[in-house]
């Protein structure tokens, strides 16, 4: 019973995260606000001379002030996310450079990155946990601000591979929400 409730809670949280990450933000288009009745710029961003209007009290021979410059967007925790495919490739590349890792699969679901690793057959015991910790750190360093969850379980890695293959074929991540929630419930410790 507890596991069913936890699985439903994880699926709900995952679905909410997927919907929030896919919803369009507020429009920042070039159109005027409701109080702006001034001229519109032409396609190249400049105003044609006949469209330039001078405020009352200003002479017509003065050139209008240039429009304010927008500050360049800076990277940070609240910056727009980079391309998910690029982030997945970067995480895969970083993870595969770790000694003992023979292959990896990354699935991004909302703000969570699920990383499945294939370890060398010579890795045993406490070395597995050490490598999983290194994998988590390497994936987190690639950026994007994702919460990274790592598994080396053969069955879970195979399931992650199937999810990743479906996403590559064009299926939306949301169609795998139940599968991802089940994988997460098996990876994350009971709390």
Give an overview of the whole structure.
The protein has 191 residues and is of the alpha+beta class. It has a domain at 82-187: 2-Layer Sandwich (Alpha-Beta Plaits), CATH 3.30.70. Helix content is 40%, strand content 12%. It is built from five helices and three strands. Helix 4 packs antiparallel against helix 5 (177-187). It is globular and about 35 Å long. Mean pLDDT is 74; it is low at 18-40, 47-52 and 70-78.
In short:
The protein has 191 residues and is α+β, with helices and mostly antiparallel strands. It is 40% helix and 12% strand.
Brief descriptors of the model:
single chain, 191 residues, alpha+beta, Alpha-Beta Plaits, three-stranded mixed sheet
SSE blueprint:
Blueprint: H1 2-22, H2 84-96, E1 101-109, E2 112-119, H3 126-141, E3 147-151, H4 154-168, H5 177-187
Parallel strand pairs: 2-3
Antiparallel strand pairs: 1-2
CATH topology of the domain at 82-187: Alpha-Beta Plaits
The CATH architecture of the domain at 82-187 comes to 2-Layer Sandwich
* pLDDT < 50 stretches: 18-40, 47-52, 70-78
The order of strands across the largest sheet is: 1-2-3
- Continuous helix count: 5
How far is the first residue's CA from the last residue's CA?
15 Å
Q: Can you say what the CATH homologous superfamily of the domain at 82-187 is?
A: Cation efflux protein, cytoplasmic domain
Q: What structural category do the secondary elements indicate? A: alpha+beta
The CATH class label of the domain at 82-187 is Alpha Beta
